[in-house]
Specification:
The protein has 192 residues and is of the alpha+beta class. 54% of the residues lie in helices and 7% in strands. It has a domain of 132 residues. Strand 1 and strand 2 form a beta hairpin.
């Protein structure tokens, strides 16, 4: 069976920011790798020594609630096409907090599963993480350039304002003294 074609954008839409790290949910990885979440997690637990804390960790209740509200409101797209994916919130849902995997953990999970689909999908997962990293780097670069431009503009604005002020002083005509025609005597100079 050939694995379905998955767009990198679809995978990158399933990458979330938790504890300052980009991670994917165990259920999303299991779906991408073509196995049930329960089977996926069992394979991980059988090989737990391959998953240190920087590869995988379990969400807290607060993190899970926050992530669940983000996912439900963003209408994540199923990698096979048209269905929308939502987390089950009623009976029949998860009975434990989900695990999340960093980029390295997702690759390690593919090697633990060792199925052709898992190996092929791990390539898409890596590409999605790399794409997000590139987007972040380019947005950081853009922000730095905007800051530089803003600093330059503020110094240019000050210089231009100084030039305009100097030009106004040079081009201003001194006020003429309007003297009356004829002889006038100053009243101040008179003595009583």
């Amino acid at each position: 069976m050939t694995p379905p074609i998955v767009a990198v954008d679809t995978v990158s839409g399933r990458i979330h920011l938790v504890r300052g790290q980009r991670v994917m949910l165990d259920a999303d990885l299991a779906e991408l790798y073509g196995v049930a979440t329960k089977v996926f997690n069992q394979a991980i637990k059988r090989n737990i020594e391959r998953f240190p804390a920087d590869f995988m960790f379990q969400l807290t209740a607060e993190e899970h609630d926050s992530l669940r509200s983000q996912i439900v409101t963003s209408y994540a797209i199923d990698p096979l096409g048209s269905q929308t994916v939502t987390l089950k919130t009623g009976r029949g849902g998860r009975r434990y907090l989900p695990y999340v995997f960093t980029e390295h953990g997702a690759i390690m999970a593919a090697s633990v599963l060792n199925s052709p689909q898992a190996v092929e999908m791990s390539v898409f997962v890596v590409r999605a993480f790399v794409k997000l990293r590139e987007l972040l780097a380019s947005s950081r670069e853009l922000a730095d350039r905007l800051d530089d431009l803003e600093r330059k503009l503020s110094t240019h604005d000050q210089a231009i304002a100084g030039l305009i002020d100097a030009i106004r002083r040079l081009t201003s005509v001194p006020a003429k003294l309007n003297r009356p025609i004829g002889f006038t005597a100053d009243l101040k100079d008179r003595k009583p």
